[in-house]
Amino acid sequence: MMEPVVGKVSTADEADRHIRHADSSLRGSEGKPETSGTFGAFVRAAGARPRRWWSRRSLFEQFALLSSLVLSLSVAAVGGWVGNRIADGVLRGTSGAAALYMTNFVEPYVQSMDGGGTLSAEDIRRLDGVTELLKSRRHVASVKIWARDGTIVYSTQKALIGRRFTATDLTPSLQGEIRAGMADLQDDDSEFERSLSKPLYEMFLPLYKNETERIVAVAEIYEDAGALLRDQASAIRGAWLVVGSVGLVTLLALFVVVHRGSTTIKRQRSAIKQRFREKVLLHRKNDILKSETEDALRTAARIDDLVHTRLGAELHDGPAQLISFALLRIEGLEQELDGRTPKARALLTEFRSALQDALKELRAIAADLFLPDLGDSGDLAQMLRKIIRAHECRAASVVDFEMTGVPERLPRDAVRCVVRVTQEALNNAFKHSGSHRQTVMVNYCAGTLRLSVRDHGCGFSGTSAKPLSGLGIIGMASRVRALGGTFSVISNLGQGTEISCELHVRSSIAGTDDEHPQDAQPIKSD
Ligand SMILES: Nc1ncnc2c1ncn2[C@@H]1O[C@H](COP(=O)(O)OP(=O)(O)O)[C@@H](O)[C@H]1O
Ligand SMILES: [Mg+2]
Questions:
Q1: CATH number corresponding to 377-526
Q2: What is the DSSP letter of 5?
């Protein structure tokens, strides 16, 4: 049964509450009960705050934060990688050109060597000349020439000539590889270079015997790395500038697109919220209207009962009494005449029988209208028995009555409804079905009260019934619906009729949830 809605029409605040509730259930995780006292709960609680902060950000803000982070990381990774590649490229380019350049200068003065040995004083003098030239032209800091066995055969540091070092790895260069890179100056032979205290660029160049593939020595040349580092820095700056600009432009373009999308979504979201709010309000109004309609129907049913009862009593106490009185007077008149005027006596007999018929009809109508008083006795079983007994006497029929599971207390409206429907259904069976046996069954199960009144008479179809002739069926249906119940009539020609209804009632607090709790009376089940 629909609970009556009490109070004013729902306000916008209430709609907001509904919307917030819907929002939070959509988000899912929010509002879940937290288990306290465990480490898991602590971790969850610690994680809940940033999650809540994050979920409160708009779509655009979330995107802006995430994409900035992702793009910054990508730019950093790509920029770093490109920068390294460029620095490497600059180094390779520089070392390739320098190697060719310097090999041309140095190689002619090591031709006297053949896998070992030393250089002549003349070669050393010429090499000194060459290194001076290289110092001025290419900022060369020092030059060493290694024999294959690791002996320094020439050096700008004369003290090193003739010394042999094992730490310096000449193997790759002895196999033809030109090596270049920033000098780490950890070797024993690099004391002078260390003392310069500036970044140096180091090259190992294989020196070939003229017109052969034979490497006779390896030149180790240290160059001031200042210019190279500047070149590298400017190339890396350029790379960063390009990658950064591309990243920034991409980010800006994405921002514009997402901002537009986000604004559209925001607009649509608020439109949906507005519509939802209106819907909630409409539902509330609808509920209130429904409850008001049910109230009105209930009141109408009560007024109907009252009118019926009063009309029955008025007929019984007024016209019926007067007719009874008139009958008595006719008897008196008959005695007065005492057989003197047979014609008048015959007329009086006719008159008396007409009055007796009228009295019988009046009493029948009054009985039809009569509803047992619910005021003092709310006993559904007793009341049903009362109207069934009255019906059996009046209609000379037999009614089988069965009642199961009905609780002791039920709402008064439900009791009144069941009694009225039973009475009207039995009256119909008497008036229209032609059968002299009816069955009334009432049972209660899981909050549902069911009533069925059945006869095995002529029955009726949609066409044979005269629904407009009376208000019986319409009245029964309206009473049941007023209490939110369901009503049905099943009838087949020649097979009888069954009137049934179902009401949802709460037995435990029955009588107290009724509109007139003081009217509720305990009733017994059969
Ligand atoms: N138990 C019944 N058996 C046969 N016909 C019935 C029965 N109940 C109702 N009817 C048919 O339905 C019509 C409408 O019934 P109702 O609304 O109670 O009005 P009324 O009883 O005043 O005629 C009846 O006139 C009758 O034709
Ligand atoms: Mg009727």
A1: 3.30.565.10
A2: P
Q: Which atom of ligand 1 is nearest to the CA of 424?
A: 18
Tens digits of per-residue pLDDT, 242-299? 888 988 898 889 888 888 888 888 899 999 999 999 999 999 999 999 889 888 888 8
In a 3-state reduction of DSSP, which class is residue 9? coil
Q: Using alpha carbons only, what angle is made at residue 354 by residues 350 and 360, rounded to the nearest 5 degrees? A: 145
- Ligand 2: centre distance to CA 449 (Å): 23
Q: Helix (H, G, I), strand (E, B), or coil: what is residue 211?
A: coil
Looking at mean pLDDT, say which of 57-61, 91-95, 332-336, 447-451 comes out highest: 447-451
Residues 6 or more apart in contact with residue 165 via CB below 8 angstroms? 150, 152, 187, 188, 189
Relative to the CA of 474, which ligand 1 atom is closest? 17
Fold of 106-232: Beta-Lactamase (3.30.450)
Radius of gyration of the chain from Cα atoms? 57
Q: What is the 3-state secondary structure (H, E, C) of 259-272?
A: HHHHHHHHHHHHHH
Q: How far is CA 67 from CA 51, 56, 72, in A?
A: 18, 18, 8
φ, ψ of residue 141 in degrees (nearest 5): -90, -40
Say whether pLDDT at 17 is over 90: no
